[in-house]
Amino acid sequence: MDSSEFNRIVDKYADVVFRSALSFCKNKSDAEDITQNTFMKLLKSEADFENDDHIRKWLIRVAANESKSLWRSFWRKKVVSFNDLDKEPEYIDSEKNEIFAEIMKLPEKYSMVLHLYYYESYQCDEIASVLGISESNVQTRLMRARKMLKDKLGEAWLYE
Amino acid sequence: MNNKNTHELYQSVLDEVHASDELIMKLQNMTENKTKKKIYVIRKVIYVAAAIMILLIASNAVVYAATGATWIEHLVTATVNGGEYNARLIDKYDENGEFGSQKLIIDYGNGIKEGIEGDGQYAIDPNSDIEICVAEKEPKVVQKSNRVYLSWISADIREDITEDFSDGHAEFTVDVDNHNKIKFTITGTVDEYKIVLSDEEHSEEFFSE
Question: A36, B31: Cβ pair inside 8 Å?
Fold first, then answer.
């Protein structure tokens, strides 16, 4: 991949990958590492991408795999906490601040599914494929994630 | 729950999260630094339980040449959990002089050495002091002088389980911090074992090689 094309993809998708990584691992340092590793793999990849949507999905899949690799470290799971996350973003809307904080507190396996479903608008079968779990498992995690947020946020999560 | 509204809500919250300018710059510079990248995670985070290694790079760099390939060995001091150990950091280059990978060998003394092999993607910059989290090293059951230990050097754990493990089952608990305890359950034999680490939320298994 030539550098101009690579930089175009960085400009377009760096935020997307970083948001996904942050949702997956809840830690800015790890999210930045995952983002760098993901783009490094893109740089080395010889895959033929059909279009930008294909690239986006490829990046999300790689970021998810990078996150799962991170979780294999038991100690890392123990030491990373919400406190490690910088206090950004600063929302003007306090309700959004609260929602972001609660999303970041979800266990990784739930936040990952939640992000792919609500942010990337993946279907359950696509999420199952990306994460290597069954579709029913995706549905269960999604249901539990929703319930956790609803219990914590009440009406704020309903957002009617 | 109105799913469409929930989608919009979630997206509006996450849309305000952005990669930093510094990160974007690092990504854009990747094309220029393709042959040598920092791989080991280098950061200033204080880990509660994980071992932190600080490498102080000494001066002696020795160049070897064999079978066309070259490697440069740096003699370094590694600080792991407060203890200082001699270590060797080896840069490997292929026959074309291209950087290949790195290996770090720490000598803990008493014949115990730990080797960390780079994957060619990450590299330690020998010109700066760095911190490396080596928390990914796995726990092992080892036998020494007729005693059996659960050994996890990176996490600074060396538990004598000789008596308990004699019937093929041993357990002990480690305080990670003020709030968390991790239970170690070891079953099997010294040659063929299974180690389960668990706390209230997670569980992870390790097996003999």
Answer: no
B169: Cβ contacts below 8 Å, ≥ 6 apart: B185, B186, B187
Test A7 with B199 for CB contact under 8 angstroms: no
Say yes or no: B41 and B114 in one domain. Answer: yes
Please state the ipTM of this predicted complex. Answer: 0.84
Rounded CA separation B118/B97 (Å): 17
The percent of residues in chain B predicted with pLDDT above 90, rounded, is 9
Per the CB < 8 Å rule, is A36 touching B30? yes
Q: Does B9 touch chain A (CB under 8 A)?
A: yes
Domain assignment of residue A149, given as a range: 89-160
- Among residues B133, B155, B185, which one ends one of the domains? B133
Strand partners, B73: B62, B90
pTM higher than 0.80, yes or no? Answer: no
Which CATH number do you get for residue A44?
Answer: 1.10.1740
Point out the domain boundary residue: B70, B105, B133.
Answer: B133
